[in-house]
Amino acid sequence: MMRLTALLLGLLLGSNVIALPRESRVPGGIALLPLPASLPADLQATLDGKPVFIAKGPGGERHLVVGIPHAALPGESQVVISDRSGQPTIATLPFTIADKQYPEQHIKLRDNKHVHPGPEELARYEREASEQQAVYRAYTPSPAIWPAFIQPTRGAANASFGRKRFFNGEPRAPHLGMDIAAPEGQPVIAPADGVVARTGDYFFNGRTVMIDHGQGLFSMLCHLREISVKTGDRVRQGDLVGAVGKTGRATGPHLHWTVSLNDARIDPLLVLPALASAP
Predict the structure, then answer these.
(1) Are residues 167 and 64 in the same domain?
(2) 201: which of 41, 68, 96, 232 lies 20 to 30 Å off by Cα?
């Protein structure tokens, strides 16, 4: 029933129509760059040496879908176009990153270990962060079609992406995902087609599922109570992957959803249809 509901919603939102995500040329956003028709079909585009997603638009035209890192500075940037036949650089596509000031978020935690981890906990975190970074930096070729996305669980999704976080009054890394308020045990589904790249039980993220959607595009679903898939499983949009929980660094049950594009964490709201609602 969950998958059927999700698929029906996808149809209502036009998920079967070739579409592109929304553009927002700010840190943590997306730049959509049309590829000139004169460029060869077999090419590679990179931003800071990392492959960029190439997608066809509704009319068959090609676009680069560029994830802009949250730490990017305002100003000029460019994508480098290379010919796979051997010519290193055949073109560059410049774009401008606008400034954006994200608000602050102050969180009170009862468990101080998630504010001041000990040596063993820090070592665990560094090992787990390395594992997750290796996933984000992987590149799996896929068709030049931007996947349709839906919200991975029911609930109110707050606009918390990019917030400067303070735990118990102390500054920590910004919040690079979307939090969805939901009751513990509520089903969590795959927001788009893909392959399960990794699952784990992490110090900060709790029980986690990472899904590879192809061409350097990933979803990470965190704080799960339980996981229903394993690494290597192929999932379709709407398939059950777990249940909402409060594992890891969480003040209560909710789902944290990270979207990564060319190893840049971007605002998940940009990949959802403008009128999206939870399945």
Answers:
(1) no
(2) 68
